[in-house]
UniProtKB/TrEMBL annotation:
The organism's place on the tree of life at top rank: Bacteria
Domain named HTH araC/xylS-type: residues: 220-318
Keywords: Transcription, Transcription regulation
Record's protein name: Helix-turn-helix domain-containing protein
InterPro entries: Class_I_gatase-like (IPR029062), DJ-1/PfpI (IPR002818), Homeodomain-like_sf (IPR009057), HTH_AraC (IPR018060), INH-QAR (IPR052158)
GO molecular function, a single term: sequence-specific DNA binding
Species this chain originates from: Spirosoma endbachense
Amino acid sequence: MKHISILPLYEATLASIDTTHQLFSRINDFMHYQGKPPVYQIEVVGLTKHTKLASGRYSIQTDRLIDELDKTDVIVLPLLCSEFKRAIHLNLPYTDWLIGQYRQGAEILCLCVGSFYLASTGLLDGRKCAVHWAAVNEFKQLFPAVNVVDNVLITDERGIYTCGGGFSYLNLLLYLFEKQLGRDIAILAAKMFEIDLDRKSQNAYAIFIGQKQHGDELVLKAQELIEEDPGANWTVDRLCQKLCIGRRSFERRFKARTTNTLVEYVQRVKVEFAKKQLEGGQKTINEIVYATGYIDLDAFRKVFRKVTDLSPVEYRKKYGGYR
């Protein structure tokens, strides 16, 4: 039997703690129905007997204190819901215990932006971490030593699991069940809780938010030009002429500040513009593509799929509203 320690981190969401507890418990129920012994012992393990969550809105009772637990098998870090630097500071008392348990062989299951706290411990340095698309820029600024991947839903590296996206932790739990207990159990859990089992990427959900907290006024001006007129034919040469700057040096400068090349930034803005048009209104897909400044429909479709993992037609079906 594996021991599961769910940490009621300060500023965590009650939903992520309770849902995780429910899913692990339901796996034990599945085992019982099949005449098998339970596979998980699930406990909420905290610093105090009662922990306040969500800035005091809720209180949760712990099963055990961390000082009373010498060894665990899986540690769950729940989703955080406040200003991340504050949450990190409040949860520092967990850090030595967390690192010690990991070094003893415990696996760490980190739910969405619980990764901000996990990264603060140093355990993610040099490793991959899935981060919610809306938090990527802030995460990269705070933790440059972490290899951020914002296009996948789940990472699994040396006993540390992360996921990007608010409720993608449901998929992370299914991933763990499949890894530990087999595909059949994961499918059963997915059906019982009606979770899309094979969701692998954040791309179809992400809204492009260009990095603008860099303090470079010239780069910011270029970003504003691109975003104010997404249908324009923004080539690198045209942007550099507009800004009166040399191409080679500005391309390096732009990439360093935004993590995107100029071409990538233009493409992402055009795709975001097209997504909004596809979500509402009656324009045809061809009309929308032409409005982005593209003449070659196939070229736009390739760029659109690269960014979203969907074709424009598939995207409209997914987000175009009820018909």
